[in-house]
Design a protein that fits this description.
The chain is mainly alpha-helical. It has five helices and no strands. The protein has one domain. α1 runs parallel beside α5. It is elongated and about 65 Å long.
Length: 142
């Protein structure tokens, strides 16, 4: 692997790592908005159905956001695999550091698989919280 190629991979890794970490901050903001919507539902006497629908939209949005984060992690792992290759293997076009989006496009899942991926990420415990407790509060008290 040439020094320039390795440097490009390292820069790409650092950028993706920073993005991966910032996705977590945005996921927390989505959770805070969901909590605020629940409080506003009580304040402005929204119907339970409206509040539940708003919470469901935010829950799914966070699931989509977590899917982006998961893809970033996969890209980081691919870069780490490339960094581990020896110089002779680094000559093929598929391992050049600037082809991440091309590789993702070639491996992009079908719409059904994409929706299934969004739903799977929405059901992870770290995403599921606080939506189910907030929905429970809305159903009980509104």
């Amino acid at each position: 692997m040439t020094t320039v190629s390795k440097q490009l991979l390292l820069q790409q890794w650092q950028t993706l790592h920073n993005n991966h970490e910032s996705y977590e901050n945005y996921a927390l903001i989505i959770k805070l908005v969901a909590t605020a919507i629940t409080l506003l539902s009580f304040t402005f006497s929204l119907t339970a159905l409206v509040a539940l629908l708003l919470l469901a939209v935010l829950w799914l949005q966070e699931g989509i956001w977590k899917t982006f984060q998961c893809r970033t992690a996969n890209a980081i792992i691919a870069i780490e695999d490339k960094l581990a290759l020896n110089e002779a293997e680094q000559t093929s076009e598929s391992t050049k550091p600037y082809l991440m989006y091309k590789q993702w496009q070639m491996n992009r899942p079908t719409s059904k698989a994409l929706i299934a991926e969004y739903m799977a990420n929405s059901l992870k415990p770290t995403v599921l919280y606080p939506y189910l407790p907030l929905m429970f509060v809305v159903v009980i008290f509104l």
